[in-house]
Amino acid sequence: MVACPATDQRQLFGVKEHLQQPGFISASAFQLVYSRALPAEKRLMSVVIPVLQEEKLLEKTLAVFTPELRSCFSIEVIISDGGSTDGTLEIARRYADKIVCHTGSHRQTIAEGRNCGAAVAEGDILIFMNGDTYPAAPDQFFSAVRDWSQYARQKHEAALACPVHIPPEERIFFDRVFHLFYNTYVRLLNMCGIGMGRGECQVVWAEHFRSAGGYNARIAAGEDFDLFRRITRFGSIRSFRQMLVYESPRRFRRYGYSRVLWTWTVNALSVMIRRKAVSDEWEAVR
C-alpha cells in the first residue's frame, strides 16, 4: 500500500486560485502527492480519473494511456484518490502524471474527487473518466477531441458527451438493449439543448468547468447531469458517436438494469428540482 505523504506546497500549480471558484472544495481537503516532470509546453488535455479501492480494474484502464499516446495528443493523466487502502496508489504511481489524495475526515464524493483532480490540471480540455472506464479506440477518441478543440469555440460548443457500452467480451443481450436506449436518450437530450452526459466520460473546456464552479461536491449522485446542465450556459453539448468508451458491467451485474435505471432517474429528477440527490452516498461496487 502507498501512503499519502506530506506535500510540497510549491507543486500545487495554481490550485489555490482554482479552488477560489464557487463550488470547489477547500484546499485543505487534498494533497498533491506525486507529480511527474512534464514538458514545458502547455498540455492540451487533462484526463482526470477519480478512484477508490480500484486495484482490480485500474491497471487495465491506465495501460491505455501509453507514452506514445500521451505525447501524440498532449495528454496528462491525473489520479484523484478518495482514500484507497489497497494497491490502487501503487498502480497509479506506475502510470499517472499526477496523483492527488483526499485528506478530509469525511467520505469523499466522486464530485469532490473530480474537482480535486481538476484543480491540478494544466490542460485546456478536461476529460473525466471513471476508474473502470476506457476509450474503445484510444487514437480515434483523442483525435476526435483534438479536432473538436479546433472548431468548438466557433460553433459555441462547451462540452462533449460520449456513448458508453460494455466491452464486447463481457457483453450480453441486455447490455446491448440498455446501452442502445441510453446512448440515444443522451444524444436526443443534447439535441434538444438539455445538457446531458454520463459521468463515465465527460469532456469539457477547462475554462467553462471552472466558470461553472466544477461539480457540486455536495451531490452524491447525479452530479454528472447537474454539471452538464449548468455548462449549457456557455455553449451546447455535442454527442460524438466515434468517442465510444467501455465501462465495467459490475454495477449492472450486481443490481440489475431496472434498479440502476430507477436510481439514476430519481436522482436526476431530484437534482433538477431540489438541487440535491435522493441518495446520500453512492455505493461503490468492487
Outline the fold blueprint.
Elements: H1 15-19, E1 30-35, E2 45-51, H2 58-62, H3 67-73, E3 75-81, H4 88-95, E4 98-102, H5 110-119, E5 125-129, E6 133-135, H6 138-151, E7 157-161, E8 164-165, H7 173-191, E9 201-205, H8 206-211, H9 223-231, E10 236-239, E11 245-247, H10 250-255, H11 257-274
Parallel strand pairs: 2-3, 2-5, 3-4, 7-10, 8-11
Antiparallel strand pairs: 1-4, 5-9, 6-11, 7-9
Q: Estimate the helix proportion, in percent.
A: 25-40%
Note the overall shape. globular
The number of distinct helices, counting runs of at least 4 residues, comes to: 11
Spatial order of the strands in the main sheet? Answer: 1-4-3-2-5-9-7-10
The description of the largest β-sheet is: 8 strands, mixed
Backbone structural class: alpha/beta
Distance between the termini: 17 Å
